[in-house]
């Protein structure tokens, strides 16, 4: 090549210019055939990280050679270069054009549309995973092959195997299921299968049962409920108080009681299950001075549940082992004793709806507001009436035990970026049989691992990135298994895991569809549910309804603790009512079949859920560009800024203003636009350039974790999805006091909240912008 270049120099009598490879850029107008020739510093060697840093020319002394020989060499070199260029252009002309966006009006330009390689064809996979040709499996063909792998599958045997009996975390039954999942993963010829163990503290019923009794006027006393259900992580002890009914136990429900002059301090609060997790109900009651909490399933919310059945749940306002907050519960760690601030100090117990009805019969106070009754046969009352009315005694004797839990993993390694992976997970344990709680998700996990493995082994699919399949234990105690894994590998997971798909309770009905998701995964989910082979009873399209992430959702710690985009979805009953048997001993396969109407309906619904999860997972391993909608947070930040503007004058009166926060939001918007332009102008077939872009994309979620709070003291650091003063919602709640109760505003705290929110957003903008020499902001 040196001789050829020098010959060209001699032929044209000029100074030699160094040569570079062709650079193919994805043009904004969709034309990918444009070829651009650049001049580089060194032959074909780039600068740092393979990127050619600068261009220069270098004069050399002319050589005294035979003129005729030089001309012949020069002509030969020109013919060689022209042939090479023509061949390359012909090759690129045969490459498929980018697919159009969903609206069919313009070619794809970002993750909001199909990526440029959607219809990129792939060659057969071989055993050696060295440098290989680009894959040629079209995305539409891959979807069809996945559907074929799932056709005719009956999920019921696996659901029945998992839900044959209670398998509480850390018990012999749970370990038996762990070995079953391990064996199944091994039979699918995954690249690797392994176990991960943790030693955690859970709370179980004590040696004597929990007791709820009524103290009736005149001195008589009677047992209210004798259910074996309990609430894990409850406070223990014996308390007595007047009953007060607080509907779902939300903040607005307690505000209603305050408006009716009904005090909560010193009372035993009665709340209905649903709407928010048990832990939030208990925290709200404890904050107002309640001495205990009773939780019951209302017939209006859980139709079909037997009146004498109570529910299981937990009261830890957090995720993971509450005695190792912010750090992993490996057996070899020697951390000093610690305790989560989310553990309640008051006793909590669940009761049946029949017990709640009996209690309402004894209450004679103020009638309930509309919508609070819960369709009881007894009149709904807010309190017990006169001072001599009924009181309730609650005795909780739960005990803490240490248990060994196992998480089971299997991986299908990527062919190009095995160190980048999407995680698909499901809870395996359950307090009762858990057909919906753990059986459905585990069955989907196993069948999806089998199907994807067959696509790789038999259908020549070569995923660019890895798929990790995870079976979690101790999910019933607050995503303990998943959270401890995240804490154990926190230093590396945010660099490698770019998405989490949660399969828990993916089928709990047959007439509606709901989901919770990071904004970055909503577009992916929307496309995944499109044209799924749906059951007739679901209609022609899957109706979608977004609900906020709840703390008891296993996808929540991935998002709020680790900054990994996550999504959770579920088929539910029409109208959004809860599956009545969830979290009870009635959650069996037979009950689920009755609830859905037939076994065919169950298999069809579970198959649809499996296909949706599979499409999302495969899409993120198929395309060159990571299918994460990084532009989505522009709208989230814009919505936040709009909520701040009404407080601008109040802040100015305190010597504060919103200017810098608005600038930070603007810088983030400019950074996402710049990244979008970079994606459009980058040859995504260049693996080095493509990986650099994907590294920036996958960090967007992570940089919304506040760097100004301790992961140990405040594990849920996400400023959108966390829960503490450092969050954007915490700032808004504090600002609202400027208009409602100005005397309670802590000005120093408010200044800190405003400053830290500004710098967290600015830091996210700077990180997204790229290298420090590409950052240009007004700060």
From TrEMBL:
Compartmental location: Cell membrane; Melanosome
Domain Peptidase M28: 407-591
Topology in the lipid bilayer: Single-pass type II membrane protein
Domain of life: Eukaryota
Coiled coil region boundaries: none
UniProt PTM: Stearoylated.
Transmembrane stretches, start-end: 69-89
Pfam families: PA (PF02225), Peptidase_M28 (PF04389), TFR_dimer (PF04253)
Location of the PA domain: 239-304
Keyword terms of this UniProt record: Cell membrane, Disulfide bond, Endocytosis, Glycoprotein, Lipoprotein, Membrane, Palmitate, Phosphoprotein, Receptor, Signal-anchor, Transmembrane, Transmembrane helix
Calcium listed as a keyword: no
Start and end residues of each Transferrin receptor-like dimerisation domain: 663-768
Known function: Cellular uptake of iron occurs via receptor-mediated endocytosis of ligand-occupied transferrin receptor into specialized endosomes. Endosomal acidification leads to iron release. The apotransferrin-receptor complex is then recycled to the cell surface with a return to neutral pH and the concomitant loss of affinity of apotransferrin for its receptor. Transferrin receptor is necessary for development of erythrocytes and the nervous system. Acts as a lipid sensor that regulates mitochondrial fusion by regulating activation of the JNK pathway.
Record's subunit section: Homodimer; disulfide-linked.
Family named by the database record: Belongs to the peptidase M28 family. M28B subfamily.
PANTHER family according to UniProt: N-ACETYLATED-ALPHA-LINKED ACIDIC DIPEPTIDASE, TRANSFERRIN RECEPTOR PROTEIN 1
Protein name (Swiss-Prot/TrEMBL): Transferrin receptor protein 1
Species assigned in the record: Gekko japonicus
